[in-house]
Write a structure and sequence with these properties.
Elements (H helix, E strand, L loop, with lengths): L4 H7 L8 H10 L1 H9 L5 E2 H7 L5 H13 L3 E6 L5 E6 L1 H4 L2 H13 L1 H13 L9 H4 L5
Antiparallel strand pairs: 1-3, 2-3
Length: about 140
């Protein structure tokens, strides 16, 4: 298949809403996706196990996120036909390739937790204008 430079640019620009790589980044950057992938690092887990591991996730959000991850080929869902039916989730090969970058991100968060917390506290203590206050309100000459 031959693609034009314009078509290639479309596929290489996650800043564009219609770029397929943006949809992938949106999936990977989703709050629940990160926690689910991290929860599956060590192997297979059942739905109820994931729900216990990931505090705050609703049944609906866990279901939706797992379906999206399965659709994207990052998680495999296996149904065991026993009584009662047992459903397990595991990372696919593609899903496992996310482990290293997410582990690096997790390590970064731990290493910089103190700095980020201190910045948040300083920001919260600072005298800030109200959210509807703009630079134009401060200096009409710059408007």
């Amino acid at each position: 298949m031959v693609t034009t430079q314009a078509e290639t640019a479309l596929w290489d620009s996650p800043y564009r809403a219609d770029c397929p790589t943006r949809r992938i980044l949106d999936r990977i950057g989703d709050r629940w996706t990160v926690l689910i992938v991290v929860s599956l690092w060590d192997g297979t887990a059942r739905f109820s196990e994931l729900r216990r591991r990931i505090e705050g996730i609703s049944q609906k959000m866990l279901t939706q996120t797992l379906r999206g991850l399965e659709r994207d080929g990052l998680v495999q869902r296996t149904v065991h036909t026993e009584v009662p039916i047992r459903v397990e989730y595991t990372l696919t090969e593609a899903g496992r390739t996310l482990c290293e970058p997410l582990r690096a991100l997790q390590e970064w968060a731990v290493a910089h937790l103190g700095d980020v917390s201190a910045s948040q506290e300083a920001y919260d203590r600072a005298d800030r204008p109200s959210p509807d206050f703009t630079d134009r309100d401060r200096n009409p000459a710059t408007a």
